[in-house]
UniProtKB/TrEMBL annotation:
Protein name listed in UniProt: Carboxymuconolactone decarboxylase family protein
Molecular function GO terms recorded: peroxiredoxin activity
Signal sequence extent: none
PANTHER family referenced in this protein's UniProt entry, alphabetically: 4-CARBOXYMUCONOLACTONE DECARBOXYLASE FAMILY PROTEIN (AFU_ORTHOLOGUE AFUA_6G11590) (PTHR34846), CARBOXYMUCONOLACTONE DECARBOXYLASE-LIKE DOMAIN-CONTAINING PROTEIN (PTHR34846:SF5)
Source organism superkingdom: Bacteria
């Protein structure tokens, strides 16, 4: 059986630096607006990255969520948030919206999902959540297509 080697296809941030940097700046602008709680924003980005199978951003957003004080238990249960009691009603609405925007079907985002998000977030917060999911989806798709890799942590030195 032949072994599969997962190699980066293109250094897209370098090859298309203007467009890639524009997406990164948009992400920074959304974050700086401060309209969406930092931990919620990272949960939304992490759930979006889970759905897209993007290892680079799974690593990045789980580390950032932990840095912001998110609990490992909630991160472990994020993929099963619907069955978990660890997420509030507003977090559930944001996660449902992230899933609907990421998995757009023929009907788009359902009125029920949108209305639930609208009940919990004002227009600016909701707009920033939608933009957060859209930018995360774009960055995930770039990373998956280009096979951008998460940095491999150095193995700890064995004790003497």
């Amino acid at each position: 059986m032949e072994s599969f080697v997962y190699r980066q296809r293109i250094d897209l941030p370098a090859a298309a630096s203007g467009g890639y940097q524009a997406l990164a700046r948009l992400d920074t602008l959304i974050r700086r607006d401060g309209l969406v709680d930092d931990r919620l924003r990272e949960l939304v980005k992490l759930r979006t990255s889970q759905l897209n199978g993007c290892a680079l951003h799974l690593e990045r957003h789980s580390r950032e969520a932990l840095r912001l004080g998110e609990s490992p238990q909630r991160l472990h249960q994020l993929a099963g948030w619907r069955e978990s009691s660890l997420f509030s009603a507003s977090q559930r609405a944001a996660l449902a919206l992230a899933e609907a925007v990421t998995r757009l079907g023929p009907e788009g985002v359902s009125d029920d999902v949108y209305a639930a998000a609208e009940r919990h977030f004002g227009p600016q917060q909701l707009g920033n959540l939608i933009l957060t999911v859209a930018v995360t989806n774009a960055l995930n798709r770039i990373a998956v297509t280009a096979r951008l890799q998460a940095p491999v942590p150095r193995a700890e030195e064995p004790p003497d």
